[in-house]
Amino acid sequence: MDWPALWLSLHLAGWTVVLLLPVAVFLGRFMAFHRFAGKGVVEALVILPLVLPPTVLGFYLLVAFGAESPVGQLWQGAFGGPLVFSFEGLVAASVLFNLPFAVQPAQRGFEAVPREVREAAACCGMAPLTALWRVELPLAWPGVLTGMVLTFAHVLGEFGIVLMVGGAIPGETRTVAISIYDRVQAFDMAGAAQMSAVLLAISLVTIAVTFRLSARAGRRLS
Amino acid sequence: MTLEVAVSSGAPIPLDVAFQVEAGELLALVGPSGAGKSTLLRAIAGLWQPDQGRVAVGGETWLDTARGTRLPTHRRRLGVVFQSYALFPQMTALANVMAAGADETRARAVLELVHLGGLEARRPAELSGGQQQRVAVARALARDPAVLLLDEPFSAVDRGTREGLYAEVERLRAHLNMPVVLVTHDMEEARRLADRIVVIDRGQVLRDGPTEDILFDPRALRGMGLREAGATLTARIDGQEGDGLTRLRSAGGPLWLPRISGTPGDLVRVRIMAHDVMLARRRPEAISALNVIPGVIESLLPGDGPGALVTLTVGDEVLLARITQRSVQAMGLAVGQSCFALVKSMAVARHQVGREDP
């Protein structure tokens, strides 16, 4: 059992969730409540990672984060190290790759808040952020939380992008999914089985939690 | 504290409307659906921004497109009762009222005022439609609004509950010392509640006047759309009959209606709904309708559906009849023709009879 790899994966998933939470809330809310020119394009871009092969996205991110790229140079200049093949690079890739998993459920959650209820909040004198906290989030949270749970689970299992952007540096970028692959390559089937079982358990819990939340959301709004 | 509204806009519907509401006055904006009533209310609340417009309450300007003033909704001191109540479902009745900025003492007092004492801890899902409506009214009143806006507030409850809520609003009127704007397409609702009526049709003010005048004005009523179309005949009480009917004298001859209290000579106005009127080319005999009123066809307006609106001149007054276009064809009706309007006595309800003040 590669405990450092599991620890790294949990770390990566945690950071991704923390960084995506505000993005999901504000982007999801914005997409749910506003109609604007080019909304379809934005929605398509958010969904893109869902249909794009992870290796393809990983390749583009590798190029975009590389030492020759503006982003890579900016990062190098600011932090003195490369963005690719680092934990920070993995977090950045993970955030981008999980946009659809975090934003879509949050958007659905906010869409379920009736327009008149939102307007009533303003008519009660609530400023937009107050209305978000007191009226919208209490109604939309199952969607937001579902997005976070999905994101967390998805990060744990991601393979292609991690390999492309991060490589498999132990303690830095070797996540549990990569580690399973390494174990199998080394004919350590017992080690692979152990880690696979852990990931399976985490996935099952994720599905259970997600189902409970969506059922609860359905009850609240009926 | 007067509410002044002037709004003009090209989209989503062409609108060019201006009106004022005095403090303590209840103004009903009536008109067919799609006329722009709710859009006007949204402009007052700041939920919709017209191309050009001005909304001011007392000395405070909420909107002035000419000067680029636009106060966001949450900074306008208003109370709104929405068609769907729009209560916060996750909060109790008390929390809903407190969400409008009232402290607990005030919130409890307002809930008491709308007879919801004892139900403070219930969530909206645990309240009946009428009770939810009362919570919505309490929430709107809780912050002591400078303007109270009611957007078809009674359309989602059944008729019986609505009667109760009308009585409630009538009773609350003593506490409503701000301008109140009620949007409705229900003429009866406007009649019950409003001091003044503004009839909106296709984004324009068709009529603006005291409720009594508008209610008995066929031109205004035609703007209301066919369903609400009706006209008014002026008549004098001629005598009380022994069988529960009152005999009246009108320009169209004698009328018999269910008992109207009053003494012979009293002037009354009888509102006759267009869909309660039948037409005949010749004076019919042996029919149950007691009222046969001779008139001359002034206009024939085909509707969008199978119906047509016929305007009859009766003396110097007007009667509206809503009949099918098929009948217009079959009877060969044309402008200038004389015909007879048949009105069942029992079709005229008591509330459709108005008093002419001496």
Index terms:
heterodimer, A: 222 residues, mainly alpha, MetI-like fold, globular, B: 358 residues, alpha+beta, 6-stranded mixed β-sheet, 5-stranded antiparallel β-sheet, 9 helices, transmembrane helix (chain A), MetI-like (chain A)
Gist?
The complex is a heterodimer of chains A (222) and B (358). Chain A is mostly helical.
Write the layout of secondary structure elements.
The complex is a heterodimer of chains A (222) and B (358).
Chain A: H1 3-33, H2 39-51, H3 54-65, H4 70-79, H5 87-97, H6 99-111, H7 115-123, H8 128-157, H9 160-166, H10 176-185, H11 189-221
Chain B: E1 3-9, E2 15-21, E3 26-30, H1 37-45, E4 52-57, E5 60-64, E6 69-70, E7 78-81, H2 93-98, H3 104-113, H4 129-142, E8 147-151, H5 159-172, E9 180-184, H6 187-193, E10 196-201, E11 204-210, H7 211-215, H8 218-223, E12 230-240, E13 245-250, E14 253-258, E15 267-273, E16 277-280, E17 291-302, E18 307-314, E19 317-324, H9 325-331, E20 338-343, E21 353-355
Parallel strand pairs in B: 3-9, 3-10, 7-8, 8-9
Antiparallel strand pairs in B: 1-2, 1-4, 4-5, 5-6, 10-11, 12-13, 12-15, 13-14, 15-21, 16-20, 17-18, 17-20, 18-19
Helix pairs in contact in B: 3-4
Family (chain A): Belongs to the binding-protein-dependent transport system permease family. CysTW subfamily.
Keywords (chain A): Cell inner membrane, Cell membrane, Membrane, Molybdenum, Transmembrane, Transmembrane helix, Transport
Membrane topology (chain A): Multi-pass membrane protein
Give a structural overview.
The complex is a heterodimer of chains A (222) and B (358). Chain A has 222 residues and is mainly alpha-helical. Chain A has a single domain (3-114, 141-221), classed as MetI-like fold (Orthogonal Bundle), CATH 1.10.3720. Helix content of chain A is 81%, strand content 0%. Chain A is built from eleven helices and no strands. Chain A has helices at residues 3-33, 39-51, 54-65, 70-79, 87-97, 99-111, 115-123, 128-157, 160-166, 176-185, 189-221. In chain A, helix 1 runs parallel beside helix 6 (99-111). Chain A is globular and about 65 Å long. The mean pLDDT of chain A is 90. Chain B is globular and about 70 Å long. The longest helix of chain B has 14 residues, at 129-142. The mean pLDDT of chain B is 87. In chain B, the strands form four sheets. Chain B has a six-stranded mixed beta sheet with strand order 7-8-9-3-10-11, sandwiched between helices. A five-stranded antiparallel beta sheet of chain B has the order 2-1-4-5-6, covered by helices on one side. Chain B has helices at 37-45, 93-98, 104-113, 129-142, 159-172, 187-193, 211-215, 218-223, 325-331; strands at 3-9, 15-21, 26-30, 52-57, 60-64, 69-70, 78-81, 147-151, 180-184, 196-201, 204-210, 230-240, 245-250, 253-258, 267-273, 277-280, 291-302, 307-314, 317-324, 338-343, 353-355. Chain B is of the alpha+beta class. In chain B, a hairpin with a 4-residue loop joins strand 5 and strand 6. Chain B contains nine helices and 21 strands.
